[in-house]
Task: inverse folding
């Protein structure tokens, strides 16, 4: 019986390890190719460990396109979006959880329907609207939506959390003469730091990795985000996979760093959305 | 002045509280609307308004020059009668992709979550490994897989070759491209897996102990406890999975450009091309609206279906 339990645990570890290996292998393969020279690319059998570690590919990838420019654009979009989402979704969540106004829950239910509307259904009107305002081919369309509620999903998550904060705290503050803005800023926001970080992280991912919206709104290369820049690489470097992989590795790196720093928050945030929702 | 008025209210008993409450209600309403104003405006500007416009544009012919020309149901009849062959390709490939990848992804990530939920060391580490692909930009991982799946020089075919598997064309044949994208989608199920895992950890252990007392084995536990207790989360993940799978865009855009032979011309890619490359805003809007209805319908069916299958704690079945 003990032997069987042991065999079972062993099998479990073997399956998980093999599976995990399979899941991260693509990133290894990316790095391996990025460090390799052109000559090793199409070699059969492929070298699983590169014979030499060359940084030339990275240098060439970085210098062939205005990479710095794309990086800057992506950063501007992401940082301003995070600020917008954190501020506006928390304001709205405060209204839907801690101010009792007539019709509040009905309005919230109505707004939740926005969750069901995929971006592609409305992307043409969005484009025409920004065009009308002469703001297509700027970064504004990629940032502005964050400042208008910051996504129904984020409001929903924060509201769930705000509802768990004891009412006594507000009441005590009210006794001291604090208004809603003071309660929101001095009491609710500091307590909710954890949840706000989760939302900030999710927003980082959504914006940094976004592909469709920049494709729709951005047309000139100087306004490209990193993801659009990658498609340019694809055009210039067809079959030069060592350079492609070097460029990809550079693009992957920031996401990877953010993930390693905030793994706990990501996983908690995702789990929260499913279990409480 | 104000304090004096307040003081008077407190003296006269009957109408005073109602007046005070009404006043308080008014200020609460004022603040409520003020705080919620970003999303209220946003809902009008980014959801409701555009949805109405998409619907309206569906009845027009418009290509950015001049004004939209009203053409009645023309766009819809052309879409329905097969006069837009690309739309037909898009619908077929999208349904193929969605109908297979979602159930498969749910099953796969559920099993993965079950494995991770057993008593093992380094659970967080493994969970991180399986979650990693989700946080990498999809455009970047698409490029990586494109390289690995090259039929002649890709590492995948090489490794499979070691086991005697003949070369698979993966993304470069119209019969294998969708299955390949489905496999790729399994690599991206980390979100679903994490949600399942959180749900599994919420199942009280005394339920399992009861099965053990009755002499049941692991399969009994899964069948009688785990599955029923997870049914609401399975349902949630299925709905989200459907809505997300319908929106797949990056893979066809980066990996296949809809090919070969339009076999991977998924619907959002179709909408993007139709709208922004061929500037046929009318047709694209009509198609987008139709697709939206299809998604709503699918979700409604799922919800209907769930009434009899999903168990919510503290609730009797079927109610």
Result:
């Amino acid at each position: 019986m003990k032997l069987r339990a042991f065999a079972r645990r062993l099998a479990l570890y073997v399956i998980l390890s093999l599976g995990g290996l399979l899941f991260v292998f693509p990133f290894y393969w990316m790095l391996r190719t990025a460090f390799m020279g052109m000559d090793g690319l199409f070699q059969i059998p492929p070298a699983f460990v590169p014979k030499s570690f060359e940084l030339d590919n990275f240098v060439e990838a970085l210098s062939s396109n205005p990479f710095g420019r794309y990086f800057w654009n992506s950063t501007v979009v992401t940082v301003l979006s995070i600020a917008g989402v954190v501020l506006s979704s928390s304001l709205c969540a405060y209204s839907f959880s801690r101010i009792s106004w007539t019709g509040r829950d009905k309005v919230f239910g109505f707004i939740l329907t926005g969750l069901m509307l995929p971006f592609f259904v409305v992307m043409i009107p969005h484009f025409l609207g920004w065009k009308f305002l002469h703001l297509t081919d700027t970064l504004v369309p990629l940032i502005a939506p964050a400042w208008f509620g910051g996504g129904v999903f984020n409001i929903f998550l924060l509201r769930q959390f705000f509802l768990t904060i004891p009412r006594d705290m507000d009441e005590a503050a009210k006794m001291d003469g604090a208004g809603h803005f003071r309660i929101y800023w001095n009491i609710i926001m500091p307590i909710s730091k954890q949840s706000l970080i989760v939302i900030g992280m999710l927003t980082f991912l959504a914006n940094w990795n976004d592909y469709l919206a920049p494709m729709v709104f951005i047309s000139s290369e100087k306004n490209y985000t990193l993801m659009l820049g990658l498609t340019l690489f694809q055009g210039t470097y067809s079959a030069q996979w060592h350079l492609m992989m070097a460029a990809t590795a550079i693009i992957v790196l920031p996401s990877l760093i953010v993930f390693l720093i905030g793994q706990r928050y990501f996983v908690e945030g995702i789990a929260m959305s499913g279990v409480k929702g | 002045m104000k304090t004096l008025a307040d003081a008077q209210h407190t003296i006269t008993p009957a109408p005073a509280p109602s007046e005070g409450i009404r006043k308080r209600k008014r200020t609460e309403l004022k603040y409520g609307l003020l705080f919620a104003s970003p999303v209220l405006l946003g809902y009008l500007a980014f959801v409701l308004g555009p949805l109405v416009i998409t619907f309206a544009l569906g009845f027009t012919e418009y290509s950015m020059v001049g004004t939209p020309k009203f053409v009645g149901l023309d766009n819809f009849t052309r879409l329905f009668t097969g006069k837009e062959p690309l739309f037909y390709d898009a619908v077929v490939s999208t349904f193929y992709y969605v109908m297979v990848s979602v159930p498969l992804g749910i099953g796969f990530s559920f099993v993965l979550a079950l494995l991770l939920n057993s008593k093992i060391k380094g659970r967080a580490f493994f969970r991180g490994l399986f979650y990693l692909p989700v946080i990498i930009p999809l455009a970047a991982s698409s490029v990586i897989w494109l390289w690995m799946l090259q039929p002649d020089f890709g590492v995948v075919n090489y490794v499979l070759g070691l086991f005697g598997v003949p070369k698979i064309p993966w993304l470069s044949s119209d019969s294998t491209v969708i299955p390949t994208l489905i496999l790729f989608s399994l690599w991206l199920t980390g979100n679903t897996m994490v949600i399942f895992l959180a749900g599994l950890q919420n199942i009280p252990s005394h339920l399992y102990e009861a099965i053990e007392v009755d002499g049941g084995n692991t399969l009994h536990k899964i069948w009688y406890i785990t599955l029923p207790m997870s049914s609401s989360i399975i349902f949630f993940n299925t709905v989200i999975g459907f809505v997300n799978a319908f929106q797949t865009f990056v893979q066809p855009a980066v990996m296949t450009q809809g090919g070969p032979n339009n076999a991977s011309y998924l619907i959002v890619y179709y909408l993007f091309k139709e709208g922004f490359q061929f500037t046929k805003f009318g047709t694209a809007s009509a198609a987008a609206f139709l697709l939206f209805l299809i998604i709503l319908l699918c979700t409604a069916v799922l919800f209907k279906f769930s009434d009899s299958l999903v168990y919510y704690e503290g609730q009797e079945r079927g109610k």
